[in-house]
Amino acid sequence: MKKILNVLFLTLLFSCTSEDTSSNPEDDDFDRQAMLVNLTDNIILPSFYDLEEKLNGLKNNLDSFSEKLDLTSLTSLRDSFFEAYRSWQHVEMFNIGKAEEIYYPQKMNIYPSNVSRIHLNMIKVDLDLDSGQNEYSAQGFPALDYMLFGLGENDNEILLTYSNQNNNSLAYLKILVNKMISNTSTVIEDWKINRTEFVNSFGNNSSSSLNMLVNDYVYYYEKGLRTNKFGIPAGRWALKRPQNVEAFYAKNLSKILAIEALKACNNFFIGKCNISNNIKGESFKSYLDFLEGQNLLSNSILDAFRSANTKMQSLDDNFSAIVENDNLKLLEVFQELQEGVVLLKTDMISMMDISVDYMDADGD
Q1: 75 belongs to a structural domain
Q2: pLDDT tens readout for residues 286-324
Q3: Has residue 259 got a pLDDT over 80?
Q4: What's 204's domain CATH number?
Q5: Chain centroid offset of residue 103 CA
């Protein structure tokens, strides 16, 4: 369970205003509001807008595919799926407000996909993808991964499946994409409505935007990146699970997505816009440097990111094949990422005087 405080916590978050500054330590005059403004306006919102644009491009290519079921249109559809999936890596960590309320990350990227549920949903008359957590793994990017790469043994079989008028595979594919667009639009609208309240909530109490953002960032790095992309498939706590890699059916995307996710963590830490390299502002790094009076901790964190990236770059593209044949390489990446977890979850959070708001169930 990610959050200890749920609906009440959300209510408190978006009811916060500039009065929240009363909880600030007296000896800390760092401009945390400027940091929140930069992170929100130059990273969070542009990243969501980019995802929305990529999803709309995916929908356009899906429309073209439905009109002409051939390999060329399937390839274009897959390319747009990949671009949207890459963009997703830059927003998954922001599980705040409406995103948490509607279980947005779970509906977008719970893997592995539940193939049985997907096929059951294709024939449902009263399909409701919001009916409960059993539907999480039958939608989002992992479901698209299966629908675009796993419906047959090869491309010809996949095209034949979509050409078959007796099944609802194409209709379900459209439902999935439209739902992803709808959920993303809902989250973006929530950010736009609550943007001012969010950047004004820069105190250090448990309900502040700053506290939420720091916790979500660290949680994503530890769980979304380290655990989900590497630890679980590699069997860090149990048996190896090659089917649990991200983009299992596409086979050649897992590495690229993992590197993109680490890039997103690095850019957010230093306050760098993912869309434009020219935009950079106050960030977790500059806040740590201010508190420490030097940049020893922030440099250590960035060194950990670089070391993990180097290990990732050396991997083959197909993570499931690595799990089967050379699993130690994934465990080595896990260990490099673990160095970053300690620095972020123990040292950074302590220096910022922020309490961890989620439970650690890994036993490490």
Answers
A1: yes
A2: 999 999 999 999 999 999 999 999 999 999 999 999 999
A3: yes
A4: 1.20.1420.20
A5: 12
In a domain, 315, yes or no: yes
Amino acid at residue number 55: L
Say how far apart CA 3 and CA 207 lie, in whole Å. 12
Sequential DSSP letters for 285-304: HHHHHHHHSSSHHHHHHHHH
Total structural domains within the chain: 1
Across 168-198, b (16+ Cβ under 10 Å) vs e yields bbbebbbbbbebbbebbeebbebbeebbebb
pLDDT digits (tens, 9 = 90+) for 200-235: 999 888 889 999 999 999 999 999 999 999 999 999
Stretch 69-82: mean pLDDT, rounded? 98
Question: What are the C-alpha distances in Å from 234 to residues 115, 231, 319?
Answer: 21, 5, 9
Q: Is residue 102 part of a domain?
A: yes
Is pTM beyond 0.85? Reply is yes
Q: If you count them, how many residues does the chain have?
A: 364
Q: How far apart are CA 197 and CA 202, in angstroms?
A: 10
CA–CA distance, 357 with 193 (Å, rounded to integer) = 25
Q: Is 112 left (phi over 0), alpha (psi -120 to 50) or beta?
A: beta
Decide if 122 contacts 169 (C-beta within 8 A). yes
Half-sphere exposure of 90 (CA within 13 A, CB side): 28
Q: What is the Cα–Cα distance from 358 to 240, expressed in whole angstroms?
A: 26
| 336 within domain boundaries | yes
Residue 59 structure tokens:
């929908």
Return the number of other C-beta atoms located less than 10 Å from residue 306's C-beta: 13
> Residue 233: is the preceding peptide bond cis (ω within 30°)?
no
**Range(s) of the domain holding residue 235:** 7-18+32-351
How far is Cα 231 from Cα 245, in angstroms, rounded to an integer? 10
